[in-house]
Specification:
The structure holds two protein chains of two kinds. Chain A is mainly alpha-helical. Helix content of chain A is about 65%, strand content about 10%. The longest helix of chain A has about 40 residues, at about 1-40. Classes of the chains: A mainly alpha, B mainly alpha.
């Protein structure tokens, strides 16, 4: 029992950490992307006083928004690669910082 | 055709039946939030989830033959069945597996009828544990593993069930809170439309991961039965037809959609807005993937429920129906013992009658229970037409799905 509890707690911390980075970090980037797009679109996309025209569009916001979405998409692509790789007996390795596909031991 | 061949056929049919219930029981895990926020039309959501489960099941080529080893002792560590159980055509093992599967299915159907998202893996493991206790005694169960790694009923079932919903809930709460901080000042119509897309993406990832995780279990059980009767000998591979039929069973089940459970998860727990839905599904996907990477077994149902609760906690001013959550958690607690009792009773009935007659008897009992519960469900049908009705009171206003021209 105590052995199992130790193993479980050890795993739980790793899952919590990875989960916070990917499961809360990527949505955060996505939200920042939406925010930038709204800034880029201006006008009705942003909350403003009624009766007056909304803030001016900022084209740089649109660009920034799509860059952020691209990063999120890369994160998702990594997730899918992971599922597919583990299905074929491979694993993702992060030892070179950037992910590489290696054989599972 | 010998007696054991007929029993084997019953085991295969029952296992595929379990896989099917596993599918519709878990549609909600991936799609409840997208359906509740109208990111996807209900029918489209279940079709997408079914397709991704089908693909996922084929991606899981890793051999899951030792799946039962986590909880019961009916297999050797290389996946072959224990010799003592395969004497006389493998009937002893087949009856244990059959009784266990029946326990899992009956519990899955009952919780579906009540609209409770309980874990399908707990139901399967519970059934197998009960049937093993009945057939082999207390020592037939792997309670605690051997202390060298996370194993046994405690390590593979109970501890993950306590921890995974909490972890998922924390991640979803943090995600939701951050998202709402970031998008203050952006018009709601603008954010909702964007987050619906994020939701669809993250929910799809959960569906794919579900297919790879859950279809494997049934593939392993069927292959174990085939080895027990001597119809298959390779412990490194799973017969192709087993893979195809399991993938189809789980995909069809998912497509059918467990509307009752989708309703509870999508509307009952928390009133979900698109940003919460995206935070919840992202948290689920991240936890499921990170855990399977670390070999930390868990139930998608527990993770998804924890995430949705977390998204309610993280949104300032959101209402969480803790009464519904409490009902769910009590269902989780009794899933394993309840499925175990059904599995054990089934084994005793099968053993009392003996041989082929016993196997047919439990199979017929399963069919009777399934038909009864299906008929009960027709009294108050829940389907794609009313899945999103208000939990209490007035009917829901019409909302437009993402990508259906609501950008104006």
């Amino acid at each position: 029992m105590s052995d199992n509890l130790g193993f479980a707690l050890e795993g739980a911390w790793k899952v919590l950490f990875a989960g916070l980075v990917l499961g809360a970090g990527l949505p955060l980037l996505f939200a920042l992307g939406i925010r930038s797009l709204a800034w880029g679109a201006g006008g009705e996309a942003e909350v403003h006083e009624s009766g007056v025209t909304g803030p001016k569009p900022q084209p740089i916001g649109t660009v920034l928004g799509w860059v952020l979405f691209a990063i999120v998409l890369l994160g998702i692509a990594l997730g899918i690669t992971f599922i597919v790789a583990s299905g074929f007996g491979k694993a993702l390795s992060f030892e070179h910082i950037y992910p590489t596909i290696i054989d599972k031991h | 055709m010998t007696e054991s061949t007929v029993i084997l056929a019953l085991v295969v049919i029952t296992a595929l039946g379990f896989d099917f219930t596993n599918g519709f029981h878990d549609t909600a895990n991936a799609m409840a939030t997208s359906i509740a926020t109208n990111a996807l039309r209900p029918k489209v959501a279940v079709a997408l989830s079914g397709l991704l489960n089908l693909i996922g099941a084929f991606l899981s080529v890793e051999v899951a033959l030792t799946v039962t080893n986590a909880v019961v002792k009916i297999q050797n560590s290389d996946g072959t069945p224990k010799e003592s159980l395969t004497a006389g055509g493998g009937e002893a093992l087949l009856i244990i597996v059959l009784a266990g599967l029946v326990g899992g299915i009956v519990w899955n159907l009952l919780t579906w009828l009540l609209g409770l998202p309980s874990s399908s893996s707990h139901a399967l493991f519970g059934g197998l544990i009960g049937a093993s206790i009945a057939g082999l005694g207390w020592s037939g169960v792997n309670w605690n593993g051997n202390g060298s790694k996370l194993d046994g009923v405690v390590g593979k079932v109970i501890l993950p069930a306590i921890m995974s919903p909490v972890i998922a809930g924390v991640i979803a709460a943090v995600g939701t809170w951050l998202i709402y901080k970031v998008v203050t000042g952006v018009a709601q119509r603008f954010t909702d439309n964007g987050f619906r897309w994020g939701q669809i993406g993250s929910a799809s990832l959960v569906s794919l991961a579900h297919g790879t995780n859950d279809a494997q279990k049934t593939m392993g059980v069927i292959t174990l039965a085939l080895i027990a009767t001597g119809d298959w000998t390779d412990t490194k591979n799973i017969p192709f037809w087993v893979k195809v039929s399991c993938a189809l069973a789980i995909a069809l089940g998912t497509y059918l959609g467990g509307w009752r459970i989708i309703r509870t998860l999508g509307k009952g727990l928390v009133e979900i807005a698109p940003p919460q839905g995206m935070a919840a599904e992202s948290a689920s996907a991240a936890v499921i993937l990170a855990s399977s990477h670390l070999g930390f077994a868990l139930s998608t149902t527990h993770v998804a429920t924890g995430s949705i609760l977390g998204s309610g906690v993280g949104k300032p001013g959101a209402q969480v129906r803790w009464r519904v959550a409490g009902r769910m958690i009590s269902a989780w607690l009794i899933t394993l013992p309840a499925a175990a009792i059904v599995g054990a009773v089934m084994w005793f009935i099968g053993d009392l009658i003996g041989g082929l007659g016993g196997a047919i008897a439990i199979f017929l009992l399963l069919v009777a229970a399934a038909v009864y519960m299906y008929l009960r469900s027709r009294r108050e049908p829940v389907g794609h037409h009313n899945v999103n009705d208000e939990w209490e009171g007035a009917p829901d206003a019409e909302k437009v799905p993402a990508g259906a021209g609501s950008a104006s």
